[in-house]
Give the backbone structure.
Amino acid sequence: MERQEFEQLALEHMDALYRMALKLTRHPDEASELVQETYLKALRHAKTFEEKGKGIRAWLFTILHNTFYSDVRRRKRSATPVDEFYDATSDDRIPDEAPPVWNLASLDWEHVDDRLKKAIDDLSDEHREVLLLWGVEGMKYREIATVMAVPIGTVMSRLHRARKILADSLEDFAAEVGFTPARDPSEVEEA
Amino acid sequence: MADHTPHNPNRPAEQPTRLPDGLSRAARIRALADEEIARDDPRSSEFDGADQAVEFERNLRNAVSRAMAEPTHAPAGLREQILARFEAEHAADDRPISFSEHKHQADRRSSTLFSFLPRLAAVAAVLLLSATVLWIGVQQFSGSPPADGQTLNIQTVSSQLQFVQREHNRCSDIASGNFTSKIVATNIDEARAFAETQLGCGGKRLAEAIARMDEIGYSFVGVGACAVPGGGNSIHALFNPHADRADSIKPVSVFLLESPGEGCKNAQPGICYSCPKAKERGKPAVLWRDENLIVFVHSDSEQSVENARTAYVAPEPVQSL
């Protein structure tokens, strides 16, 4: 691939990469620097990457992911919270938890954004990252697994946990606004 | 958030994602909402009455998309900054060195060397003495005399081979689901890209090996991230004999480890190392250096190890550890 062609193709994803970088670093200057480092590494490896009709977007996200976790976070020398550590290392199995409150399907979804933003901001880096790749970038589990270099089971586990946390916050929101949920026909009646 | 990468009509149709076994009903309903599995999935009866759940999950996804969509654009000037760094990178690659600059650098190296030589000789003597003392000490603790040409840390390599064997045993039983939950790529193109991003190299050779393995009777099951000790990132590729094979060949695993540490960092290029003790136990394994990678191959079948060596164009000769 010619240099200019590669640069043009890669820069199409700059906005999406910056959005991810900002969600991870939470600081505009650091996000800009992370994106620049990502593109520099992509350029250096451009000759080894042969575009086969899909993949440059996931490839760029993978580089950004690796750069953040290997360079940026290590530089910050931030200690990993204990529950986040166990979450990241022991989530190969999908947790066998009760499903979220699916009877909130008819909630007024137009007014939940602020509540969700707060809940999302409180999530760990890995959970925020998987939500962004899934919800905003529309990636499939396999693509997310490639970007984050984890098994598909781990992707599902992290998504499960993140969605559970968000659903719990929506349940609180529903109670506050006096929303009366409909009965979920999928629930099993206990004797 | 469209991906504008060009469509390649020659790329094979995307295979459905193989989800881990043993998922709860809740997890399968979420996968259905995410269109990772289809309504006409064999176990679709479990989705009866789950419409509200699917609707909730899809509404949640849309709400997350709205909540996380900002910022929609990178800040002004970022594109120019990136292009400026591209230009600087290219300029550093392309800049020719003038003859006078080259001579200046060479003269500096020469004058520096000659003025430093006596001190350098003294330092070298101290280092040689220290290295000799260290070598004798290591041999005392290793319990075996050094063999001719032996440069690997046998104890570390042994632990790496044990890991490789255990992981192969754990994953080669496909029905267990252990490898399925590990798989990231299941075709040549994805495997190549995955190897390049995980290891920084090795993707091309892996892709070529996958093709050759298919020609000699092995299906590529997939490749995923692994945790081979004693180095940087590592990946694990698994191959199964074609279903119509009547002979006794068995599954074979190929592990690629980047930036090898103490165990294999002295592995010489152009030599394939085999482990006689592993072979005696019916668990043959070999390893060799491929640029910045160490390639480990293991199977319960000697023939499969040999086939993988051939497919990977492993070096000759074979030297025992």
